[in-house]
Design a protein that fits this description.
about 230 residues, alpha+beta, PH-domain like, three-stranded antiparallel sheet, 6 helices, 6 strands
């Protein structure tokens, strides 16, 4: 009875709304994965430290918000209705540390995930929470959004749409914002891509070492019995 009650309490105690920062184990994972390439280790550790210290999450009734960055703050907001699929990835080192990465896909057409949630110990339960919110928002939100957006005043636009009254001005504004953000984000995106590739390399090498050690154990077992 005690074990059953404790398991029930642990399921009911999980509340994603209380998650605001990643677990400290994420910084340890950044350090270990950065040591694969010693010449770049100091730079990669610095990038990981900045991301860990500034990474913030918010899970509310509307959607998920994720922000990070020191000099150039980056922020992603996803409503539950935009979520198309959710995947949980866990490499060898991540499993050893109890970590997982939740990749959230949207209908943007990109093969890359729209949001990557890192440093969450209860990733499976968070995935289930996001799935339940996604299904509820898609089944209940369409009627409410249509009724709220029926009446549009002249010259105004509905939330989430762009006015067609001045397409040239809108295009110029988007071009200026894109060119300004591209220069500041290129370096960070490159370093994050290097870090992700190093993580995959670490997991691959660790898996190969495990396979070689298991093969050696099987090959050496008859010899030990004969001796």
């Amino acid at each position: 009875m005690t074990l059953m009650s404790s398991a029930t309490d642990s399921r009911t105690d999980f509340d994603p709304r209380t998650i605001e920062r990643p677990d400290p184990a994420l910084m340890k994972y950044y350090i270990i994965s950065s040591l694969v390439v010693p010449p770049l280790a100091p730079l990669l550790i610095l990038v990981g430290w900045i991301r860990y210290r500034t990474l913030r999450y918010r899970f509310d009734d509307e959607g998920v918000q994720m922000s990070w960055g020191l000099l150039f703050r980056r922020e992603i907001n996803l409503t539950y209705r935009r979520i198309q699929d959710i995947h949980v990835h866990s490499g060898l080192i991540q499993r050893w540390m109890g970590l997982s990465t939740i990749n959230i896909q949207t209908a943007s057409g990109s093969s890359l995930p729209e949001m990557r949630i890192e440093g969450i110990l209860q990733a499976d339960r968070l995935r289930d929470f996001l799935y339940s919110r996604m299904r509820g928002a898609k089944s209940d939100g369409d009627t409410g959004n249509k009724s709220a957006g029926d009446v549009v005043q002249p010259g105004s636009t509905t939330p989430g749409t762009t006015s067609n009254s001045s397409p040239n001005a809108t295009s110029a504004a988007l071009t200026a914002a894109t060119s300004t953000a591209t220069t500041s984000d290129e370096t960070l995106d490159l370093l994050e891509a290097i870090r992700d590739n190093l993580r995959q390399l670490v997991d691959r090498q660790a898996g190969q070492r495990d396979g070689v050690s298991s093969d050696n154990n099987r090959d050496g077992s008859p010899t030990s019995e004969a001796s």
